[in-house]
Amino acid sequence: MSTFNAHDIAKAAKTAFQDSQLIPSSERAHALHEIRKSLEANKTEILKANEQDLQAAELEVKAGKMPETLLKRLDLNRGDKWDSMLQGILDVAALPDPTGNVSYASELDDELELYRVACPIGVLLVIFEARPEVVVNITSLAIKSGNAAILKGGKESSRTTTLLARAISTGLAKTSVPELYVQSIQTRAEVSSLLELDQYIDLVIPRGSNSLVKNIQNSTRIPVMGHADGLCSVFIDEHADVSKAVRVALDSKIDYPAACNASETLILHEAVVNTVWPSVAKALLEANVKLLCDPISLGALKELSPRPTNLETLVSPSDVSSYDTEHLDLILSVIVLPSLQSAIQFINSHSSHHTDSIVTESEAAASMFCRGVDSAGTFVNASTRFADGFRYGFGTEVGVSTGRIHARGPVGLDGLVTYKYMMKSKAPSGHIVSEFGAGKKQYKHKPINATAVPFLT
Amino acid sequence: MSTFNAHDIAKAAKTAFQDSQLIPSSERAHALHEIRKSLEANKTEILKANEQDLQAAELEVKAGKMPETLLKRLDLNRGDKWDSMLQGILDVAALPDPTGNVSYASELDDELELYRVACPIGVLLVIFEARPEVVVNITSLAIKSGNAAILKGGKESSRTTTLLARAISTGLAKTSVPELYVQSIQTRAEVSSLLELDQYIDLVIPRGSNSLVKNIQNSTRIPVMGHADGLCSVFIDEHADVSKAVRVALDSKIDYPAACNASETLILHEAVVNTVWPSVAKALLEANVKLLCDPISLGALKELSPRPTNLETLVSPSDVSSYDTEHLDLILSVIVLPSLQSAIQFINSHSSHHTDSIVTESEAAASMFCRGVDSAGTFVNASTRFADGFRYGFGTEVGVSTGRIHARGPVGLDGLVTYKYMMKSKAPSGHIVSEFGAGKKQYKHKPINATAVPFLT
């Protein structure tokens, strides 16, 4: 989009952010509608560029330089992708404004009121791979939450993202939202320069592979919000109900094995090895799931009569690395442990602290699991696949965070806001701190019941 | 305290954290009382070690290797410091539990409930300089909020902090909180190793100089919560009341000039140069504040009749660096700007986004300032010195964050917690996602009114 250097881009983004603070949030929603119109008006041109990106990618795939799965993700004209991309803009526009809400309010003294109010973070740097519709998706989220954004897509989608970004700017130009509110860059060199500019950029959001996220975390002091991996597990407790165990274990694994919230490990309480496990194993094998079993779970399957038909082809012994592997496929590591306590310890050591589920009828076990497992999601008798912003009811999803700071688990628009404190004295002579202290005025700290700051116009 | 290496220390901290998750929060408050008792029982020994630290420091000061101000900060026997340190433990113990509160709850489907519940972050690495009582202060905050902590003090207080840490461990040993919940380390080498261990350490909290904070941010991918500097300003608007302007400008500067929330810059709307400014300047000069003035504000003072007596000694021209300097002393940079809008832009470019205040009688100007200034605190007719955890009513202060992610501004115990999502299905066959979708079940997303998770025992 731009021929500026990284410093100019970042500074322009910060200025655009600051200039936008006086614009009412209704104007930001209006901007989303203008962007949708502009994209629709440029549909033919954008899809032509996407076709060119696809043709170039096909050559790469044929030359063995690119995985074939990438073609699907690149194709903006596939199925209803275009229409659902545009509908997504309207969906985000219709969500409640995540800014302006008061989360703490206190009367510090007569006529001295303090409000903690949600506000945008500032400038987001979003780095993603392949799927060009992420440009549109992230733009919607950034504008809705009042943040400026700098977007960097994969080079394989550069023709498409350039035109998408241009159409977005055209839409923005019809509103009072600054035109440089959303900027798009194309080269990797610019990214590494941008990662140094912590005076302008407030948050980096990488959306892509583990290695992308780790590389970025290692090369910036700007906070990074991303999820590195999803190593989720299902624990079948000694008090598990068989049918729940079968349903939850199966859904967690097979509903969408490539997702970060799919389960990779099944943990069995030793009490269920000969009771619940055979039914669960049969269901998994019927669904063509490859099982990597520890000796006890493997032994139990070999003793079954009749033996499951595909035992020989689908079941094999696990090794020590199995329980630290994100399979992202129809593969499941299985281990037997002697107690709920040991299962919690095992999950805390081996899971990626994303989402883990217990199957149990015991309320005490459920409570202990939810307290003890140190993950963003701890579920009882429910599939790990529920860990998702849309399913949680956020209306949209910025990503899933396996970090613990600021946002954890599925992140909605709330993850793109921070807060500031506003204080106003209505006293005839204002308020100063030297009037307070021993023998002087004391702080009242009387809670105020407010959902918005009363003195903002 | 420990002869273990950094990896062992960090791993032990994480294990202690995870093991502590099933301990009720009442036991954590009990631990604080035991720690207070243990410190009191070892008072003589600790103060003797502190005396040794002081003697060693005095030699360093005499040799010109250490600033004399450090001696005051080191001395644990000075005034009521010891007693207020112990009282601080009881104060923190008595604060409301920051964990367990539900901030989002939704019925996703009949008999499928989701709760977002506050929980500790994990392992904190706290690095501080000089003041040994920070060991006790941070220990209280960490235990109260359910986090494990690794503490590293300055080498000038090592004898004191070693004994403080030992007394803390002795107190912890009398409770069910793991003994290695709080560990103390002494060498810088251990710190740099710890900063690499992001699999065990979840948050780094530096408390000290700007350079300490920046160095740490540059050398770790673990999130850092610290405040780098405090460059606060007061803007006197064209609609300012003279007496409020005098009081707020004076208190912001002179109440405690070395604090991060003291003002460093005074911005004058050009309309008040000959009206409000003379009174403000006279008050500042009477308080012995050195003024670094731009040409217009300087000119206005020179034209005053009678001339302020100490004009020659205290007033001098500013230079371009004045407005980016944290004076931390009785020095104030002064600049005249043509509008509220330009003042907001100036603050956003030059302040450290800590706290800025406007003096105005105009509600529109107050609102525009509070919205437009991109700082953690935006105040109206109130001193910048109010920006403080105790004054805000948090009961305690972890620090002041000029970062925007996770915690911003004065940070109370809430800054030491994150959240996790707990979900429970009560349906007879549990819950799986493949039952939802087009032509199948739809999500209800019905808000639940709850302050705690009902299924935790």
Automatic annotation (TrEMBL), chains A, B:
This is glutamate-5-semialdehyde dehydrogenase. It catalyses: L-glutamate 5-semialdehyde + phosphate + NADP(+) = L-glutamyl 5-phosphate + NADPH + H(+). One of its GO terms (biological process) is amino acid biosynthetic process. It comes from the Eukaryota. The keyword NADP applies. Keywords: Amino-acid biosynthesis, NADP, Oxidoreductase, Proline biosynthesis. Signal peptide: none annotated. Catalyzes the NADPH dependent reduction of L-gamma-glutamyl 5-phosphate into L-glutamate 5-semialdehyde and phosphate. The product spontaneously undergoes cyclization to form 1-pyrroline-5-carboxylate.
